[in-house]
């Protein structure tokens, strides 16, 4: 027993119109009122206000927030706006934002701190590219550990911060990391958290795996040491595909 409650989180990315809110209700029904695990859905911001009242058993979240309180940042959303819309959590540092929006580790740390300031819990994503992975396991472990330390916000605490290890080469590709690769990386990240934050916080903080998780591979991944849940993209878009992943946890 680790004492860490499993979290199964879905990331809808830029998918979902009001017509898909029925899937949110169906996922909330799956999660159940007395669930022994946590379930979260990171939705497009446009759906948060409509989804929050439908999903008392699921934490509704955003996919990013800006690091500033307010101001001249056209097109961005602040943590206060997302909290007011009904979000209880947010992703930060997803590899698609690191890649396409050029977000740095310092940006990610600032976003996480800003989200926490407004009462949102945070799932902070880290992960290596295929190029880094092909340089060998030790290089990959070192790269992701350094990325994690540089992305940790001030006052990081397991009560509100969860880490998601998502190898970039496994996201949306159907190529899932093997349980052995995941176990080795999560052990390295656990050691990194303990060193950076102390034993109590470092051992209490959840580390999720993400990257092509599906009903077929969820049980193996979720029963791997130091895997405290999953961050799921494509397979979280419908209750039918998400159900076996929730069940596996
Ligand atoms: C993700 O978006 O974080 C993700 C892991 O996507 P997928 O499950 O589709 O690989």
Helix content: 40-55%
- Mean pLDDT across all residues, rounded? 96
How is the main sheet built?
8 strands, parallel, barrel
- How many domains, in number, for the residues? 1
Give Rg in angstroms. 17 Å
Describe the structure.
The structure is a single chain. With 249 residues, this protein is α/β, with parallel strands linked by helices. The protein has 11 helices and 8 strands. It has one domain: TIM Barrel, CATH 3.20.20.70. Helix 2 links the parallel strand 2 and strand 3. Helix 7 crosses helix 8. It is globular, with a radius of gyration of 17 Å. It binds phosphoenolpyruvate. Phosphoenolpyruvate binds next to strand 8.
Task: Describe, in short, the structure shown.
The protein is of the alpha/beta class and 249 residues long. It has helices at 21-31, 45-51, 79-85, 95-100, 105-117, 130-133, 137-151, 179-197, 199-204, 218-222, 239-248, and strands spanning 7-11, 38-42, 59-62, 89-92, 121-126, 161-165, 207-210, 229-232.
List the helices and strands and how they pair.
Layout: E1 7-11, H1 21-31, E2 38-42, H2 45-51, E3 59-62, H3 79-85, E4 89-92, H4 95-100, H5 105-117, E5 121-126, H6 130-133, H7 137-151, E6 161-165, H8 179-197, H9 199-204, E7 207-210, H10 218-222, E8 229-232, H11 239-248
Parallel strand pairs: 1-2, 1-8, 2-3, 3-4, 4-5, 5-6, 6-7, 7-8
Helix pairs in contact: 1-11, 5-7, 7-8
Bound molecules: phosphoenolpyruvate.
Residues 11, 13, 166, 171-172, 210-213, 231-235 line the site of phosphoenolpyruvate (PEP).
């Amino acid at each position: 027993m680790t004492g860490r409650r499993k979290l199964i989180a879905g990331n809808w990315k830029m998918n979902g119109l009001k017509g898909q809110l029925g899937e949110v209700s169906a996922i909330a029904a799956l999660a159940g009122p007395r669930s022994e695990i946590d379930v979260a859905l990171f939705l497009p911001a446009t759906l948060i206000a409509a989804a929050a009242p439908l999903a008392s058993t699921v934490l509704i979240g955003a996919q990013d927030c800006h690091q500033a309180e307010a101001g001249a940042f056209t097109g961005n959303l602040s943590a206060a706006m997302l909290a007011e819309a009904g979000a209880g959590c947010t992703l930060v540092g997803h590899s698609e934002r690191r890649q396409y929006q050029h977000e740095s580790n310092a940006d990610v740390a600032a976003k996480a701190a800003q989200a926490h300031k407004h009462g949102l819990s945070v799932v902070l994503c880290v992960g290596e590219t295929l190029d880094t992975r092909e340089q060998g396991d030790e290089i990959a472990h070192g790269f992701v550990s350094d990325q994690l330390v540089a992305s940790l916000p001030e006052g990081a605490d397991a009560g509100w911060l969860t880490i998601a290890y998502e190898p970039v080469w496994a996201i949306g590709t159907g190529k899932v990391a093997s349980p052995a690769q995941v176990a080795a990386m999560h052990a390295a990240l656990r050691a990194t958290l303990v060193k950076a934050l102390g034993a109590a916080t470092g051992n209490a903080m959840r580390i999720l795996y993400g990257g092509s998780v599906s009903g077929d591979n969820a049980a193996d991944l979720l029963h791997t040491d130091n895997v405290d849940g999953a961050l799921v993209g494509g397979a979280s878009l419908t209750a039918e595909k998400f159900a076996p992943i929730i069940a596996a946890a």
